[in-house]
Amino acid sequence: MNATTPEFADLLAAETCSNLANVTMAELRVAVLSDAGKAVAAMAGCQTQGDDFDATDLLALIRDADPDLRELAHNLCADLVAVMEPGLATLLALQARGADCQPAAMALRQEFIATYAALVALLTPERGAESRPPTCSGA
User: Fold this and answer.
1) Total domain count for the chain?
2) For residue 91, what are the domain limits?
3) Is the dihedral of CA 106, 111, 116, 117 positive or negative?
4) Residue 135 covered by a domain
5) Going along the chain, which residue ranges are E strands?
6) pLDDT (tens place) for every residue of the chain, 139 residues total
7) In a domain, 33, yes or no
8) CA-CA distance, 106 to 115, in Å (whole number)?
9) In a domain, 53, yes or no
10) pLDDT score for 12
């Protein structure tokens, strides 16, 4: 029962397009990173499930940063997406084959956390020395 009427499909497409019209590439990247971080945390067996990645806070930091730092932050987010995409695809393939993906997920999670901490430190130099990357408390 997942068929939709043509009218509903058109309404849904129009709603989706109008919502995406106001979304920037940075917002999309951060949303993707947030979801990917939660998925990897779950596969790694973390109890936090990726709650340590605050997408709203990160977007505010990026928006309020100096233009040069903003560009660096955008590049770092793009780099992190480039790492997470094949990493998550590999974890899903391992999981689909019944293999234990927890060690690989933990390694990818550590990269994610370290990069996120570096990004926050870049955008908030005054907090950089005191901020520590969150750890994953496994199951």
Assistant:
1) 1
2) 25-128
3) positive
4) no
5) none
6) 445 455 555 544 554 454 555 668 888 888 888 889 989 999 999 876 555 677 888 888 888 888 899 899 999 999 999 999 999 999 999 999 999 999 999 999 999 999 988 888 989 877 544 545 555 655 4
7) yes
8) 14
9) yes
10) 45
From the list 37, 43, 30, 22, the residue with the least C-alpha distance to 92 is 43
Give the amino acid at 42.
Answer: A
Are the C-beta atoms of 64 and 124 separated by less than 8 Å? Answer: no
Of 131, 1, 124, 3, nearest to 65 (Cα)?
A: 124
Of how many residues is the chain composed?
A: 139
Residue 10, in any domain of the structure = no
Structure tokens at 60: 């505010």
* Contact between residue 10 and residue 29 where contact means Cβ atoms under 8 Å apart: no
Q: How far apart are CA 22 and CA 122, in angstroms?
A: 27
Query: Running DSSP on this structure, what letter comes out for residue 109?
Result: H
